[in-house]
Specification:
By secondary structure, the chain is of the alpha/beta class. It is built from 10 helices and 7 strands. α8 packs antiparallel against α10.
Length: 253
């Protein structure tokens, strides 16, 4: 798992910065309930997306367990940054109108992802919406590239176990009375990594499908990437996918 306290200072600059945050917030806004209400951003990180969700009459809160990330978030959403674990949220049941989770579930084991989803559903009011990214790792390789071909075998073997698979989230929601209420996509500006950068993130164990693989399998992927020409030519930026799920019952007054 990434050391988010250690990464907090450089996190935004290495994750697409303001352009990616703006694109994410605009896509989220298309799926969020409009008008007054409370929006909770789980694993808000530095708050770079969270602060863009603020609107007149809307209370925006961000929760994260990393003190380093929260220090940055507190400057962006004063009074709205809360330290807490996503599997044990420090909020009452049925207390928020929307929950958003961006780039979280793909990092977790399946049981932890389910616990996070259950907590998100617990704090939602009837008629509230849960909005989350799905299929994050697959988004990088939606278009053909040499990097995609070099990593294809390992991704085919281990990505089917990704806890943020859309079909898995859909089935989980259906079993708990949450129904689909919309989708949106947004570009991961500046995130189309070249072969050298993919090697670096794989060797640093930052790619979930590689952390599930055997060391010898990872070494083979690194060897293939090293052999590619144009080591620093980026592949196409990913298109990230958001899905919205609405809690059963009438909308909260």
């Amino acid at each position: 798992m990434i050391d988010y306290d250690g990464e907090a200072r450089a996190y935004d600059a290495t994750r697409g910065g303001e352009p990616r945050a703006r694109a994410a917030a605009e896509a989220l806004e298309r799926l969020l309930p409009q008008g007054p209400g409370t929006v909770l951003d789980i694993a808000c990180g530095t708050g770079i997306v969270t602060r863009r969700l603020q609107r007149p009459g809307r209370v925006v809160l961000g929760v994260d367990r990393s003190p380093g990330m929260l220090a940055a978030a507190a400057r962006r959403i004063p009074g709205g940054a809360v330290c807490g674990d996503a599997t044990r949220l420090p909020f009452a049941s049925g207390s928020v109108d929307a929950v958003v989770m961006v780039w979280l579930l793909h990092l977790l084991p399946e049981d932890a992802a389910d616990a996070v989803l259950a907590e998100a559903a617990r704090v939602l009011r009837p008629g509230g919406r849960l909005v989350t990214t799905v299929d994050k790792e697959a988004a990088y390789f939606a278009q053909e590239s040499e990097v995609g071909r070099a990593t294809a075998d390992l991704r085919a073997r281990y990505t089917p176990h990704a806890p943020d698979r859309h079909d898995r989230i859909r089935d989980w929601a259906a079993g708990r009375g949450l129904r689909p209420s919309g989708e949106a996509v947004f570009p991961g500006t500046g995130q189309g990594r070249g072969a050298r950068r993919w090697r670096e993130v794989i060797e640093a164990a930052r790619v979930p499908w590689c952390t599930r693989a055997e060391p010898s399998q990872v070494e083979e992927v690194v060897r293939r990437l090293t052999a590619l020409p144009d080591q620093d030519t980026p592949i196409a930026d990913p298109l990230y996918r958001l899905v919205a799920l609405e809690a059963g019952g009438p909308p909260a007054p």
